[in-house]
């Protein structure tokens, strides 16, 4: 073996160009595959950092056919109460949520994420505090004393890790909370953004007149399955008393069904399809890399026919020759694997900086021993795929034929070319699949970005401002009026407005409404809508289009009448009367006591929660309308004449002058929020495009190398053809025909395979089908163009054949 390795190094040194190409090709394939596997393992399969995490499940209920607001998956308090009392499949059941809160410190008020959790949640997670205690069961009931548990990050950054912090008060949303505990470092449930936890008061809610819907966490008993828990939960939900508000939370549909899913699967459900597609894509890149190296080694083996034949004639067995050739491939793959390992380490280090922030478990990505083991396995697979076939081919050569025939006319060269063509065909097929997959994701992303969201984000700055101490509606109104007056007076501001919601804001205000038969088409209409409270200038600043009637002015919220705007989706679903502007409705919101509401205008639909969402009915109230007011917070929108980011410091200064204790959060251009909302599909499309480009490049290199060798190997044949009158153009067509036949056959195979597997990527696509014609045309066309470019130099080489020199053997 030592002798074989020494000889392999000598032979590699004599063909450094081939060796470098093979090593770099394998390094790209092995390194990329290892990096993507590391990400997939860290996100999808690595156990959660909780004891017995395999028993943790996400629980929610659904009324099939009904639609939950914003697509939320909740459990109702009524189902929770009944199921918790009689469950035999769960040892724990609780609720949790993530919200941003205004937290007051001595020097300032800061917006930060906190989590409400049931006391039982900490027990299910096996969590223990580093100082103090976690919640008692009594603190999960309505009316219990407000307490808070700090994260290590908050304790360190704001309290200097002071052990005397226990028992002190911390104001959260204007309410004092007693600090009772400090969580251990690394405990960040539900995610790493959370800086503190407060009790979620769920126990006893169902016995009251209240109805709640919340995100639920359960823990399976040992031996119980999610399917068994689903059956038990569904039975409990159907036996619970159904409050009228249940339809508001879950929509009107079929009888309730409870779903139970392992927590790790639920956390990654949105990114799992994309990561599976990327794993498949990088696997194809690795196969293309191996095919390329196999082709290089086949070509190399053919050029060494005479040497191998002499070795065989001197007594070398086919097994001995096979071992020697395989050793050379193993050395190349081993060096490529080491470089690939380094490349994978670099990629994993870089990914957290470039991947979408919404990618779950991003902070847990590590290049651990599992990644090294995978890299070793990938290297071994590359050794087998790229080395065995060329070694077998070289070992089977018949020394008598090679020594008797001229090397350039030997049938071995023709057989090697046919074998290389088969490998190239496979490369072309894999490259076609990659190109079509990239085309699908890119076309889908383009369609997503070209959706009309109903507003114009250009030069719009947004800011979330929360007043201290649970400010009243009157105080909020005075602040909003003063703030808008100051902002609008600035020379670099074109317009400004405020409201309770802005596009892509996490929270949504949703309310039920009812319409009389004469308005809704001779039948009562009940529904729910997004409820906006906005100032004059809000709709104009966002560029929301007026379809009918007029917009709000500064006096509309102050008169005796209640005026509203509705959107086109509201009209389409619920209003049969025309014209809509001027329509008057009594008891619109159900608790109005016959109060009359007038629709003064219709505006375009706004896709508040992202371009991939369907329009919802929307009702706009003017700022100052009784019972429909901004309370404690203002969402500001400012259209500037220049860069919106440049106005941000000035805006902060104005707010500080008016309300020094106000919490200012998310001061950013609206365009930035839009970019963040599509970062996952953009990232997936960009990565797959990179893989496809790499696959096309490798296919082009492989095709170019084999054709160059083929032309060199057939110089005598081409010289004879030229001597007999073949024109250079005919020789070019000969080479092109040889290459394009292989490419077209590979494209056909890849086209068929892509058509079969593309349906698995349906969940990643927006606005197009899995058999999108554009993608299935552009992908193969790109590969065909690359193949033609790769053929140019070999074709020119063929056309420049000098028959006189070739026939003289020069």
Key attributes of the depicted protein:
single chain, 810 residues, alpha+beta, 7-stranded mixed β-sheet, 6-stranded mixed beta barrel, 18% strand
Short overview:
By secondary structure, this protein is an alpha+beta fold.
How would you sum up this structure, described in words?
- With 810 residues, this protein is an alpha+beta fold.
- Among the domains are: 64-255, no CATH class; 469-660, no CATH class.
- 50% of the residues lie in helices and 18% in strands.
- The chain is built from 25 helices and 22 strands.
- Strands 14, 15, 16, 17, 18, 19 and 20 form a seven-stranded mixed sheet that branches. Strands 3-4-9-6-8-7 form a six-stranded mixed barrel.
- A hairpin with a 4-residue loop joins strand 3 and strand 4 (109-117).
- Helix 2 packs across helix 11 (318-354).
- The longest helix has 39 residues, at 411-449.
Write the layout of secondary structure elements.
Layout: H1 2-14, H2 16-45, E1 56-62, E2 75-76, H3 77-86, E3 90-104, E4 109-117, H4 119-124, E5 129-132, E6 147-150, H5 152-159, E7 169-172, E8 175-183, E9 196-199, E10 213-220, H6 226-239, H7 245-250, E11 257-262, H8 263-267, H9 272-303, H10 305-313, H11 318-354, H12 369-395, H13 399-404, H14 411-449, E12 460-466, H15 473-488, E13 493-499, E14 510-515, H16 517-520, E15 525-534, H17 538-542, E16 546-549, E17 562-567, H18 568-574, E18 584-586, E19 596-603, E20 618-622, E21 633-640, H19 644-658, E22 663-669, H20 670-677, H21 679-713, H22 715-723, H23 728-757, H24 773-799, H25 803-807
Parallel strand pairs: 4-9, 6-8, 15-20, 17-19
Antiparallel strand pairs: 1-10, 1-11, 2-10, 3-4, 3-7, 3-10, 5-8, 6-9, 7-8, 12-21, 12-22, 13-21, 14-15, 16-19, 17-20, 18-19
Helix pairs in contact: 1-11, 2-9, 2-11, 2-12, 3-6, 9-12, 9-14, 9-21, 11-12, 14-21, 14-23, 14-24, 15-19, 21-24, 23-24
